[in-house]
Amino acid sequence: MGKSVKEIIMDGNGYACIQCGRCTGSCPSGRECSLRTRKLIHMAKIGLDVIKEDALWDCTTCFTCQERCPKEVKTTDMIIELRNLAVEEGYLPTMEEVPKIIIKSLYDTGAGQPLSPEVSKVRSIIGLKKEAYDVSTNKETLKKFQKLLDGLEITKKGGLR
Amino acid sequence: MIFLKDIGVFICHCGVNISNTVDVKKVVEEISKLPSVAICEDYQYMCSDPGQELIKRSIKEHDLDAVVVAACSPRMHEPTFRATVSDVGMNPYCFEMSNIREQCSWVHHEKDKATEKAIDLVKSAVARALLLEPLQSEAFPVVPAALVVGGGIAGIQASLDIANSGFKVYLVEKEPSIGGHMAQFDKTFPTLDCAACILTPKMVDVARHPNIELLTYSEVEEISGSIGNFNVKVKKKARYVDMDKCTGCGSCAESCRLVGKIKSEFDMGLGKRSAIYVPFPQAVPLKYTIDPDACLFIKHGRCGKSPKCVDACTTDAIKFDDKPEIVEFNVGAIVVATGYKEFSAERKPEFGYDLYSNVMTGLELERIFAPSGPTGGKPIINGKVPKKIVFISCVGSRDKKVGNPYCSRVCCMYIAKQAHLLKEKIPDADITVMYTDMRSFGKGYEEFYERVQKEGIKYRRGNAGEVYEDGGKIYVRAEDTLLGEPYELEADLVVLGTGLEPEPYAEGIGKMLHLSLSSDGFFLEAHPKLRPVDTVIDGVFLAGTAQGPKDIPDTVAQASGAAAHVVNLISKKEILSEPTIAVVDEDACVGCKTCMLLCPFDAHEFDEDKGVMTINSAMCKGCGSCAAACPSGSIKMNHFTKDQIVAQILEVL
Amino acid sequence: MDEYAFFPGCIARNVYPGIEKATRVVFEKLGIGLKDYEYSCCPPPGVMACYDKPSWLVIGARNLLQSEADGLNPMTVCAGCYGTLHNVWYALQNDPELMDFVNDNLSRIDLKYEGKIHPIHFLDILKEQRKRIKELKEIDLGLNVAVHYGCHYLKPSAVTGENSERPDLLEEMVKLVGCNPVPFKDSLSCCGAGGGVMSGEPDVSLKIVNTKLNNMQSAGVDAIVNICSFCHMQFDQSQKKLGATNIPVLHLNQLYGLAFGIRPKHLALHTHLVSTRDIVKKVKAAKKG
After folding, report:
1. Could you say which architecture CATH assigns to the domain B239-322?
2. Is C158 on the interface with B (CB under 8 A)?
3. Could you report the per-residue pLDDT of B529-584, keeping only the tens digit for each?
4. Could you count the other beta carbons within 10 Å of the beta carbon of residue A143?
5. Is residue B196 within 8 angstroms of chain A, CB to CB?
6. Chains that touch B (3 or more CB pairs under 8 A)
7. Alpha carbons B374 and B357: distance in angstroms, whole number
8. Minimum Cα–Cα distance from A62: chain C residue
9. pLDDT 10s digits, B439-448
10. Domain range enclosing A153
11. What percent of chain C has pLDDT above 70?
């Protein structure tokens, strides 16, 4: 599906942004690092390489900026979609291996956070089944799940194919 | 039934606007072939003097029965050409205009097809012209008086201008005194004129003017009729004080059992008043009013042993048996000057207005400044003089989240003014204005902005994200967008630059008068550029912030503009109505009232005696809804009859 | 009997199973049925949606459709899972083209998403059970707690319908079991884990949660009570990494479990990284008293 920056801006009402700065002024992450939500929207609008910005990955998607934007710009949605584009072009977060591990775990086990033997023990001690009933319980279901993922971009972006 | 008439057709080149795409000569050639066309000419600019002369000459020479001009949109020049044909004795409703510019040459590229279309359009215009009938306007007498709804600066200015032109004005104001919001202000930007000083002389002029009947503490209940003759019913609310006896001495308020207990609306809830009160000391009229929701005697039937106000009053002016009174009068024109309401700041919870007492709105701060206000003009907020002050712009304006996408126009300047006043009263105050843009568009405004910065007030670009409290102190967070850095400031006082919204009370007036609203909720003017004081309801005009946010200079200018339009209207003995309206065929009408239910202008009435519907020709705007819906087909639209329209359609098919 | 499809999410299954246990016990006591399905990871609105939103929609839809045949609404205990399931549901309700894209992919494994069920977060079920909760309460816990909503339960309010600036439901719900919600600075602020920041930018994640933990500490609280497994994990794990604070972390269902008299061990409280010993002591004392 891969949206272009222009499409991301249109879908997110980005053209309406008046750069008032309430987004950055409300940002819990921006207080602790160099994330300036307002600036990312501005860069996208004027055609600068926003997907190369490291700060693009500092947003926790808490949606406070999108809540408070007086022009109803979908700031957080835009950041999420710009990240999709960034990954496509190879601009990844600092600890780029960790998301890849999560994606691989999702593929192999159906869970982003896999079950370890220790936690399995805890499960039985507290009276739960050793392993939760989920997509990996039945081998066939897991195979189908993996087939589904094979045809999705996420496995490509996660370096699985 | 068509009988042969002589039609004159005139095709305009409109410079090259039409002739670049449409082959005008070909059109002339084809149209000339039509049997009913006595003459067909073309010219560069038909609306020009020579063009109009050509038409007039042709009408005389060929004894034309009707004229068709094929040119631009009728919205441009129908009135022009109607006047042209009337000049030589032709009824203006025997004139038909065919739009071969906006609807043809301006929207098509292919010359052949555009020319074909132009020919079809003109042919259909000719077909209609054959069926046009002469129509006569009706004359209505005009009542030489006006109603002004709203006694703020707009209403005051309009009333004075109309009254000074020699006409009677009824000025109706819902509060006990005129003055509106301007009376609440301390100083006005950019001149720093004292608002009361420039307003009160006008208020007194209104009170003294022999032509103005001032109806305060009154509300318009009902308006019927139409331009030139509106019938108005006004309810004068019960004051419980005899206006003739009250001297405005104030002894009653001083002695009231509830003195200092009731929040004063004029002081935005920051000051207190008694149950018997005047809203402010310079009120016009300076007569006291009893608040029936607060007064012990009115609410519970007793006030101690005896009401203290009665005891204190030396002229025996208190009358608890006062009742509301309905007054009725007729006017020829109405000015709606109902003003605005300040945005309710609790609708922006991130600014903490509902939580923290040190967060105030612009209008509340204005009352703190005012010498007649709750602190006597001293800058004391919750018992202390603030030293660290933050202003936040655009609160409730330019904000789709609260449904106000528009800019309120005055806030940038009133924030600058208030920042200046604070600095003047508290020289060592640390004042920051958190702004999105600085709109200092008016005369002296940019210079004032510079002055204010020179006084040491800091302007930091970037609107506030949130106001929070920690350890008993208030902090404001924002991003300084010019530095690209988030920051926060501690504040003893946070002032929210709240915007303007339409006055809720005006909704009732709007419904009574069938006024439309623009998308921002303010009253809609007839044309945004060229008719800012008119509405589409003839005889009803707008003045002041009722039409949209604006500052005092623009309000006064607009009020005088509305007054000029009013005087223009009511100085006529009579006015002519538009004859292109609906007419009922009484023989066919069955009195089902379908039309009455549909009419947006309340122009229909049921005649009890005849059992048929009648249409008020002054109120009908010729929209056609009733004619379309009438089950017995007994409504005819003058100048847009079924026959005429069908003839047009058949010609193009 | 009320019944829901139980969507525990990876954290409650595989990292903090005390949350899954607590949920099962609390809902059993409330008489609400929970049925299990072959769910996968939601997938996370952080890492997954940010890497590839279309894939996120497809995997999320696969989860949603599992309970359609039974007509049961999926219930989440993690605001992150809720953020995914609810936002996927909302996006597909309102965009037929997206729905087609999702079903084109699902059809490859013979599945179809109809959009008939409606994901719900467990807090919205509990809020209708106030009376029953009071009846089941055996111990008035008497704890001073810092409540944490988690961003995706509240926002974006256009989708969730919640009051994101002045919510008060969670405060009310902890009061039901005798806890005192203590106000603290920036109480609605994000925990710092979302948006893939915990994995991709761990320094920033720790800075954000550190500030929040310090604010909670300054207010003087016995525990943090959350309605999100992911925030739960963030608070518990980060305190270990930061070493500055030691505030025990409880998921609301664990809190209710304690109030209903369930043994702390059965809620896996002993497995938390930040020791819950002090709370357990307080609860024991409250039980006796």
Report:
1. 2-Layer Sandwich (3.30)
2. no
3. 999 999 989 899 999 999 999 999 999 999 999 999 999 999 999 998 889 999 99
4. 11
5. no
6. A, C
7. 15
8. C151
9. 999 999 999 9
10. 97-157
11. 100
Give the right CATH number for B582-637 from 3.30.70.20, 2.60.40.1120, 3.90.226.10, 2.160.10.10.
3.30.70.20
What CATH class does B7-129 carry?
alpha beta
B466 contacts A21? CB cut-off 8 A: no
Collect all residues of chain C within an 8 Å Cβ-Cβ radius of residue A122.
Answer: 17-18, 268, 271
Q: How confident is the model at residue B226, as a pLDDT?
A: 87
* CATH number of the domain where residue A10 is located: 1.10.1060.10
User: Considering only CB atoms, which chain C residues are within 8 Å of B350?
Assistant: 165
Residues of chain C with Cβ-Cβ distance to A102 below 8 Å are 44, 47, 199
Cβ contacts (< 8 Å) between A20 and chain B: which residues?
394, 398, 436, 462-463, 481
Contact residues, chain B to chain C, C-beta under 8 Å: 349-350, 468, 470
Say whether C192 and A28 touch across the interface (CB within 8 A): yes
B contacts of A23 (beta carbons < 8 Å): 465, 479
Q: Residue C71 belongs to what domain range?
A: 3-122
Contact assignment for C185 to B350 by CB distance below 8 Å = no
pLDDT digits (tens, 9 = 90+) for C238-281: 999 999 999 999 999 999 999 999 999 999 999 999 999 999 99
Residue B226 has phi, psi (to 5 degrees) of -150, -175
Of A21, A27, A31, the CB nearest to B463: A21
Which segments of chain C are extended strands (E)? 3-7, 33-35, 74-76, 120-121, 144-148, 180-181, 223-226, 249-251
User: Which of C154, C166, C212 is the best residue to mutate to test the B interface, defined by the most B CB atoms within 10 Å of its own CB?
Assistant: C166
pLDDT of residue B298: 96
SS3 C171: helix
Counting the structural domains of chain C, the total is 2
Helix (H) or strand (E) holding B411: helix B411-425
Amino acid identity, position C9: G
CB-based contact A18 B437, cutoff 8 Å: yes
Q: Which residue of A has its CA nearest to C11?
A: A113
* pLDDT above 90: residue A75: yes
| Distance of residue B482 Cα from the nearest chain C Cα, in angstroms | 24
Characterize the bridge pairing of strands C223-226 and C144-148: parallel
β-strand B493-498 against B359-361: which pairing, if any?
Answer: parallel
Q: What is the pLDDT of residue C289?
A: 66
Report pLDDT digits (tens) over B86-107: 999 999 999 999 999 999 999 9
Shared domain check, A16 and A46: yes
Round to whole Å and give the CA distance between B390 and B457: 10
Query: What distance in Å separates residue C180's CA from the closest CA in chain A?
Result: 26
Q: What angle do CA A77, C206, A28 make, to 5 degrees?
A: 45
Looking at CA atoms only, how far is residue B395 from chain C in angstroms? 16
pLDDT surpassing 70 at residue A50: yes
Q: Going edge to edge, which strands form the sheet with B325-331? A: B218-226, B229-236, B325-331
3-state helix, strand, coil in chain C (%, to 5): 55, 10, 35
Q: Which residues of A are less than 8 Å from B436 in CB distance?
A: 18-21
Kindly list the partner chains of chain A, i.e. chains with 3 or more CB atom pairs below 8 Å.
Answer: B, C
Does pLDDT of B2 surpass 60?
A: no
Digit-coded pLDDT (tens) for C27-51: 999 999 999 999 999 999 889 999 9
- Region at B151 (left for phi over 0; alpha for psi -120 to 50; beta for the rest): alpha
Model pLDDT, residue B239? 97
What ipTM does the predicted assembly reach? 0.96
Tens-digit pLDDT profile for residues B610-645: 999 999 888 888 999 999 999 999 999 999 999 999
Shortest CA distance from B468: residue in chain A: A26
In whole angstroms, how far apart are CA B541 and each of B166, B254, B515, C248? 19, 42, 10, 68
Report pLDDT for B557. Answer: 98
